[in-house]
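Practice problem: predict the structure.
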Amino acid sequence: MRICAALAAVALVLLPLAVSAQQPAVAEALTAVGPGKFAGLLEARATLLVESIDKASRSVVLKNARGEQMKVIAGDEIKNFDQIKAGDQVVTTYTQELMMTLRKGGGALRERIDSSQQGSAAAGQKPAAYEAKEVAFIADVQQVDLKKRTVTLRGAQKTVTLKIRDPEQLKLISKGDQVEGIFSEAVAIAVVPAPAKAKK
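Answer:
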């Protein structure tokens, strides 16, 4: 089973439905966390209620906090489908994180090293899966725009422009410098039992 494909498909379906009721916290730009050190974070978390299930068609009706519903067909890649019950919750989380450290003067080769890990629930448990990817890189500083508060970085495979919140920290960066950093991305989806109702 290719968890990456399965998770990506399900996350694209579920997050817009849930986010319409609760906006994720999104970092608009990198924040300085020390001299020459920068960090950025994007997080989205969605919780949907399993309204009903049709086991014959492997379809599930999900509802968000606003009462909006959508029908989802669970493909064969969704294991342990029979463990899902009406009243369960589908919890989806998505995160991106970027950490960078300035290397004055540069001199190192641009590089990119990719790694990943993934997993899924054991047989008999409620459906769950996750995938995490990490990219370690060294990139060249191609341009610094103090007016727009941006820095353009050329990596081993692509060029990106990032916004820096702190103008004083941005002044530390010059064309010809390098940054060393780690970009991580993770998505997780889990079906969890509905919270037990407190006894009166």
